[in-house]
Amino acid sequence: MSSPTTKVNSLEFFHINWKVWKIIGLRLFKRDVHTQQRLPVSRLYLSWCIAANFAVTILFPIHLSLGIFDDKSKLFDGLNVTVTSIGATVKFFLMASKMKQIAQMEALIQVLDARVTHLEELEHYRTRIRLNILNIQRMYLSLYSGIGVALAASILFSKERRLLYPGWLPFDWRTSTGYYALAMLYQFFGFAIQISQTFSNDSFAPKTLCILSAHIELLYKRVSRIGFDGPYAGDSGSKAALVQQEEELKRCVLDQINLYE
User: Fold this and answer.
1) Residues with Cβ < 8 Å from 137, sequence gap 6 or more?
2) Phi-psi region of 32 (alpha: psi -120 to 50; beta: other; left: phi over 0)
3) pTM here?
4) CB burial of residue 94 (10 Å; 0-12, 13-18, 19+)
5) 109 within 8 A of 211, measured Cβ to Cβ
6) Is the dihedral of CA 174, 176, 180, 182 positive or negative?
7) Residue predicted with more confidence, 61 or 161
8) Which three-class secondary structure string do you get for 71-88?
9) Is the Cα torsion angle 112, 113, 115, 116 positive or negative in sign?
10) How confident is the model at residue 2, as a pLDDT?
11) What percent of the chain has a predicted confidence (pLDDT) above 70?
């Protein structure tokens, strides 16, 4: 638990997103928040990204799409999960194209975080804002973890040999235990990656908006204290107090500009 004197670090809420993005390959496009340059990656990680995304991000929606016509009795179930899979792939590529903007946003958030130094703001952040954003993150994590558990349970408690969802494969998984295990491994792997993609992408925007809203609240508190707080609070009519208040107002205006960015 943070103490009232702990510095604000809003980027902590994105740690889990970046961990997932690293697993699914978006670490390739990550940029340094200060230089805006792409960060280097190892050849091993590059190989993993190419293999994993070719097998899942590209081939998995195709695998599900072709499977729609393989079992007509499950047409609507197959269509539903296929559209969801295609949506996850589209969002993956959209997120990959926004890595530079995300790095710029994180740099601005760090600037805004550095402005939160007053005890009242720190306490408000610790007791209200931080807990609210963590609850949103837990909600998304619980939701998508529950989807994964439900998929696994649907197979574990099934009395017949079947796939999670209809999908085309270049071999007959019905006639061989080895092929069936391979088919199930591929589907579990594909769904695990795509659920992770969806979780990280869907949870990013709400948390970002909550952080933006939080800094607007904190800016309001900052502006409301001008003239009533600081070394010249008891002598607000003096020249030194006016200069100090004007400087703080300018800093608040800059905060507002950063929020608009």
Assistant:
1) 13, 16, 203, 207
2) beta
3) 0.82
4) exposed
5) yes
6) negative
7) 61
8) CHHHHHHHHHHHHHHHHH
9) positive
10) 41
11) 89
